[in-house]
Amino acid sequence: MPSKSPVVDIDTSSGNHSAMSLKCHKAPKIWRRSSHTSPTNFWKAPSSSEDHFWSAYEATRPNYASSNFLETIYDYHDEKDASFSIAHDVGCGSGVGAFALAQRFSHVVASDNNTSSLHSAQRFLSSKYPPERISFNHCKGEDIASYHAKNSADLIAAPESIVLMDSRAALSSFAKVLKPGGTLAIWMYGRPHFSEVAYKERCQDIFDRIADLSFRKVLTNLNAETEASWKKTASEMASFLDYLDFGKPNENWQNVKRMKWNSRSAKLGFFGPGACDFEFEPMSNIRQGEALIEIEDGEMWGRNWNISGVREYIDYSFPGMKDLVHGDSKIEELLGELGEAMGGKNASRSYTWPIALVLASKV
After folding, report:
1. Residues sharing a CB contact under 8 Å with residue 343, sequence separation 6 or more, in sequence order
2. Residue-wise pLDDT tens digits, 86-132
């Protein structure tokens, strides 16, 4: 198994390096619709296939509860002696984030801009929790302050969704809804990376080519507006969320903590430059005093798969991808090559994920 590198906490305010230390009331049920739907909302499955897509999608994705990832967030929140009453899962998709949050918070609000995704989340979460524990809101992340009381939330989580928003508007909206001292937790992960030294270089190269060929089918013949949206999303992911700007210290946010897993060995993105005709333009808005933490951990969210698992990941890496890649001779050729590089069709290889997590406290 891969060995873990030391954890380093870099405090930009002092230059010191130290080891990282990684601990009711009900909201009313809400179901509201936003009157605005973004024309560049490209991450959407047809309603008729939404449940099937999300089920297959989640089966190939990491488990947030593993590797103490959520505990990192809860420990940060608990350090302030904050309440665990109300949390939001913004951009909830199928509801797996809300499901995890509801294990610690008394009430969770799950919101999404896609009606069909929100319906999938409602069906899933309603089978796990009673109605008083979960409420739902159809709205953009940038608009949650229009639907929820000021200073009402203890924690807002935006898992795998912030790059689909206008981050400046979203952060402003989040700041209004959070209580003073409340926690904002934003995270993104990219495509998986092989972690075993004997296999990672060769296997990852082939896998990345498959991913790029697959996404090229999505990113071809785009109109200018949609291409600009994809470029924004890809560039923001390439920055490992460094583009997020929390403004002047203690204006709206404090104690900003930026954490990155496997940023030195992997790229944070679902595809590389070979998939598109635009260049990535990552940027950084890290400010003096923010904590920067980089962790190389080949076991983070670790899982194993064989070549069938790789195929399933590719098929459900994006809504409609399975139909797009079906029968593509070059992709099939590369999948065969990858299967051999992995040790044969029944061989199971370990993989991990690049992750960016940004934590901040409302002033």
Report:
1. 199, 349
2. 999 999 999 999 999 999 999 999 999 999 899 999 999 999 999 99
Read off the tokens for 248: 């002047």
Name 290's bridge partners.
Answer: none
Does the structure show a pLDDT above 90 at 36?
Answer: no
Contacts 24+ apart (CB under 8 A), 32-36: 32/137, 32/138, 32/139, 32/147, 33/115, 33/138, 33/139, 34/113, 34/138, 34/139, 34/140, 34/143, 36/140, 36/143
Compute CA 337 distance to the chain's CA centroid, rounded to the nearest angstrom. Answer: 30
How far apart, in whole angstroms, are the C-alpha atoms of residue 32 and residue 261?
A: 36
How far CA 346 is from CA of 53, 66, 199, 349, in Å, comes to: 25, 25, 15, 10
Instruction: Domain 8-191+239-269+279-303+353-362: give its CATH code.
Output: 3.40.50.150
More confident residue, 28 or 321: 321
CB contact at 8 A, 331 and 214: yes
- Residues 49-79 have pLDDT tens digits of 677 888 898 999 999 988 999 999 999 999 9
Cβ atoms of 96 and 60 within 8 Å: the answer is no
Q: Where are the domains of the chain?
A: 8-191+239-269+279-303+353-362
Those residues whose C-beta lies under 8 Å from the C-beta of residue 81, and which sit 6 or more positions away, are none
String of b and e for 201-232 (b: at least 16 CB within 10 Å)? Answer: eebbebbbbbbbbbbebbbeebeeeebebbbb
Q: List pLDDT tens digits, range 264-310.
A: 999 999 999 999 999 999 999 999 999 999 999 999 999 999 999 99
Alpha-carbon gap, residue 183 to 153, rounded angstroms: 9
